[in-house]
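Hi all, long-time lurker, first post. I run a small reading group and we've been trying to get comfortable going from sequence to structure in the token notation. Rather than ask abstract questions, I figured I'd post a concrete chain and ask someone more experienced to write out its structure so we can walk through it together at our next meeting. Sequence below, copied exactly:
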Amino acid sequence: MGSSKTRAIVAELLDAGDDPSHLRFLGYGEAESQGWHKGLIANLDQVSHSTKEAVEQAERASGVPLESAVVGVGGPQIQGASVASGITLSPYPRELTREDVRRVVENAGEIPLAKDREILHMIPGEFVLDSQKGIMDPIGMQGCYLGVKSHIVSGSVRAMQNVVTAVNRAGVLVETTVLEAFAAAEVVLSEEERELGVLVAVLGGGTCDVVVYKNRGLRMTAVIPIGGDHFTSDVALGLHTAIRDAEAVKKSFGSVQRNLGKESTTIEIPGMGERASWFVPNSALTDILASRAEEMFGLILDEVLGCGLDRQIGAGVVLCGGGAKLRGICDVSEQILEGPTRLGLPPKITDMPAMLESPEYTTLIGLLLYAQKLWRLRSNPVNKSLGSIWKSLLART
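-- Answer (accepted) --
Happy to help. Here is the structure in token form:
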């Protein structure tokens, strides 16, 4: 559910595995988003109507009714915080059990929050056993004190409830809500990237949602108040044309790379009202878009520096979302964030149409795979690994 598009996807579980190939695509629906303002719901009826339209398209395509769904959330309501907590196990060293790990992880989620906020995700990172740090799986080890460093992602209670209400009004129950940047990162990152340090940015219509991983754990969550809609508005204002025409010009001719030898070329800008169309240098469009891109990545850099992670993003940057399709965006990212940048493409599921193999659909496919894991955990409550324990604690039910 974004400021620009509302999308729904349906797939069939082929078996109980977590691999994307264990899902078969059944249907997809998309509607123009209405009722959003700067990443927040401004009109429930309009948002619900867009959601219903996307759901009905997906139902017709798949031939099955949609009764419930995993729903992605993001925008300025989201906040992230890293916390440390621990428990004393006993006066003398003893062997740690799975229950000890569960206790310390659940204890980390009991931090006090403002009355208007609720925990969306609680992602455990590394464990501390007595004075030893950097432990990934302490089960079976000996110790007296067990601590854990976790990352808490919270959302505004009112904003979250508005999302749930809008989806319910569309005739769909919300199984759980998931941070969209987290869902996208889950499907585009390798274990090596998580270990070395990587930043994932989802360039949406109203905002840019950012997460950073290091040592296989989530280290930062941030929301940048700039999205594709701001690029379009800049073009409309700078070139004196309607928003719809500005969007078309941006998609057809837009680039954020300056000095590419196109200064001598011109593009036609549709006029408004009685004014005829006119021509401007291609460089004028590039300057407008490049300025906004540089501002956006500058704000991302500020967030990273503020968290002390500037030298810890060794694997670089991954860009997802519709805004990632803007020409030259990876180059600007590399210049400002000083790290290799690539597009985050969604993994393929069985029978998935080629049109969905684009960064603007990565979040959608990520939500689908999150739903797949959630179904497996709920159908098999006996978790045998620490990784399964963590996964089961991530889902907000």
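A couple of things your group might point at:
The CA atoms of residues 258 and 286 lie 6 Å apart.
The first helix runs from residue 44 to 62.
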